[in-house]
Amino acid sequence: MPFDPTKPASGSKLKSQEMRDQLNALNDKIDAQAAQIAALQSQVNTRAPKPSMGEFDPGFSDPPTFADLQKIQAVINDLIAGLEGG
Which H/E stretch holds residue 40? Predict the structure, then answer.
């Protein structure tokens, strides 16, 4: 029996079977969600860690050269690929 939030009706006498059915339905929902959470947690725990890029130290010249700008572009491209899961 699925959980029915309208039971017990206001002012009605409580019936043990109705209450038991409601509590069992809620317990089933909790158990189902616990199983979903456990499955998601397992997926998170088994995911391979991303390699660290380390700290970016461009070592720019002043003013920056074209090669300096290419270094920045490469770092940004690596960052985007990492964020996209690539």
Answer: helix 16-46
Task: Provide the mean pLDDT of the chain.
Answer: 85
- CA angle centred on 21, ends 17 and 22, rounded to 5°: 120
Quickly count: other Cβ atoms within 10 Å of residue 71's Cβ.
Answer: 15
Distance CA 35, CA 8 (A): 28
**What 3-state DSSP class applies to 64?**
coil
Look-up of token digits 């909790």 = 30
Overall average pLDDT of the 21-32 stretch: 94
The number of CA neighbours under 13 Å toward the Cβ of 6 is 0
Q: Where are the domains of the chain?
A: 1-47, 50-86
Which pLDDT score, from 0 to 100, does residue 58 have? 66
What is the structure's pLDDT at 20? 92
